[in-house]
From TrEMBL:
The protein, known as: DUF4344 domain-containing metallopeptidase
Naturally occurring in which organism (per UniProt): Streptomyces lunalinharesii
Signal peptide: 1-26
PROSITE patterns named among the record's database cross-references: PROKAR_LIPOPROTEIN (PS51257)
InterPro entries (alphabetical): DUF4344
Domain of life: Bacteria
Keywords: Signal
Entry-linked Pfam families: DUF4344
Keyword check for Signal: yes
Amino acid sequence: MGRWTGHTTRALLALALAAAATGCTAGRDAAEPADGEARRSHGKAGSNGFVVQYRTGGRAATATDYLRAQRILDAAADRLNATVKVPQRIPFVVRSCGAAEPAYDPETGTIDFCAEHVDEIRDRFRQAGPGPDRPGGTAAADAHVAAVLEETAYHESAHALIDRLGLRFTGREEDVADQFAAVLLIGQGRAGERKARAAADDYALAAAETPFDAADLRDEHSLDGQRAANYACYVYGAHPDRHEDLVGRDARLDAERAEGCADEWAQARGGWRQLLTEHLKRPL
Ligand SMILES: [Zn+2]
């Protein structure tokens, strides 16, 4: 089963369904933290745009410390704010979500960034170990984890932008959100291309972990294996000369798909440029 942003195990899905917390943007109870939980915001008090709030303590402590130390969300918020003008304040709230997944909540206008998601991604790459795509072992795995969490941040921020800016488009919102993440990552150049490839790796690992079944066909997200291929296609389409290894037998893309990836990438980036035309501070 696909996570909302991509990586839910079936068990987690069942729990999430039980908690009526499905999907990235599904209306759901915003489980507010207990009084007195520590918070720290990144960004000027009262400023608009994306900010980061760390709700420390309890089960979220390790993941929160990791996110804070790596500045993953702070850097993502900075990049988003440098790119898009948003009239509202949109907090990433780092906290324990229980069975729920990271999600933008249109009721509160906040993005819940779940400690459990951080743990899941870290566990996945730890178990996968250094492979052909991950020379360098631990350091490369850490970079992969950071890249996937950055991708999650951009994916969820796309839901927030769609809601807050009233963006209208065709096609499935979850795919459109992945495209936004790809645009934000690949736009960073070679380092960002590596991040998009890490996202593809993670979706492929998630797909291998939990083979899909009929229920997944009814989900609002594309299948994890498809999302892996999509990210690979955008990276390859942006710079075919640098990512030839993504195409071929047993690679992320077959030759037929790869042929259209330059166009797919141009459509994805062009689409978001058009959607955000009046809101951009700098070119996408
Ligand atoms: Zn989503």
